[in-house]
Request: fold
Amino acid sequence: MYKLLIADDEQIERDALKAILNKSIDSILDIQEAANGREAIVKSQTYLPDIVFLDIKMPGIDGIEAARAIREKSPSVSIVFLTAFNQFEYAQEAIHIGVDDFIIKPSSETRVLEVINKILTKIKNQRTEENKKRDNELKLSRVTGYMENEFVYNLAVTGITEEKFTNYLDILDMDFFSGKAGIVKILYETYPIHVDSINQKKVLMKRSAFIIKSKLEEYGFVTLFNKELSNLYFFPLIEKQSKMDPDKSNAIDLPKSLAIEIEKKLNLKVIIGIGLSFNNPVKSLKSFAQAKAMLGNITNKNLNLDKNSSEGIFPLNLEIDMEQAILNGNTENTTNTLQEIREWFENSDLEFETKKRSILELVTVLKHAAAYQLPNGKCIVDENDMKDAPGSIALLSGLNIFLNELLEQIASAKEIENSPAIEAACLYIDTNYLKDITLEETASHCRLSSFYFSKLFKKEKGITFIDYLTGKRISRAKKLLETSNLSIKEISACTGYSDPNYFTKVFKKVESVSPSTYRNNKVLKQQ
Reply:
């Protein structure tokens, strides 16, 4: 629906325009009136019309001056001048202000409807484009967030080659000089309100990430996060164009500074470990190992926690070791870490129920981590035997069984990775690549979690989902450039890109030349 303001000092003219519009235009929700330029300016600021009809000759502030004031406050409003035959000397000024059209008084019904329909079409198109732009920005934000999660996951858990590292930075539009690894353990039990649901924890994790990102920006870092795992993994990097000295960044007590900032703003205690700087991506795992070691060295005494909250803290290095062993599906590392957990359990002076609670919290963390490796993104291994365990032997035996079942599920998932799921995904892309499809939609079509689907697609096809989809679209675009007279804008729309500028950018990245240059080169070659 649209709002219209009619400003004319003659009541009869206002009534005539309203009668025409009310009779023929259903999409105008509301029409308001102003008897002079000053009233038009005031009403436009409170009423916020989409269209303003302004009589040029009004007592006091005339239509030209009113239009200038209205346009200054509302740049997107559509303005139509109401004028007599002898007032075309105002045309140049009207063009300067950005007036949409003129209506000659006395107003004819045909002319009024012609002008209003033209303006309504323009506004509809603008709103459609704005909605598309918002949708594209939202989708881009989702893709960027997903790539960020995956990038930091690879840095922290599986390691990364220099080529893959460069590809991620290219997609994220970043220019790497040096970086360091960070891990945050959020102590949810210190939050003033009881936190027991996954959603509550995710909210606190996202808020903590925002605070860390903002604080690190003050030190000159650009920061990437994985906010999907049980602990918050992050990667502060310095870009090449930054004037920051990496040696100075090492002198800052970042863990303490960030923990204080989070506690001040969220009233939530966290433990943060940060590794040393690296400028070679293959050293990322070493930096994350240093961050993990720093966490392991932090004692309850350092945290200044009360007795009840400090009692339940499981050794952080063991938690992270086990989480990463499960994420990698590594049986040997899982067994070794389980032995360390047994030793902690036997040597700890804590009461059995306190240690049991710590083990059950670890189980929750591991189920969350394992879900990333499973096709549907859900871990259904049962831990009820541990919940009911009456003593240490039963509890640790239950943990051993739980871990074995977890690893078996992950191994089974890897064994069926040559299933037809990815071929089904490729068929879906081949059929729908001209539409605005996303990784999430394609994964859902294959009944796989987004994370698992992305990893499986890359393993099966050797390229990412985005690269595969882009290849299909650019191949189609090249054919159209070679065989049709369609404009670049039309070809963009025909190949799944709603924004011609973005299409041109992608085409140039793939083919090293713009679409126009590609077409011209083909024409010259044919001649």
The domain at 154-299 is CATH 3.30.70.270 (Alpha-Beta Plaits). Residues 109-158 form the longest helix (50 residues). Confidence is low (pLDDT under 50) at residues 305-312. The chain has 24 helices and ten strands.
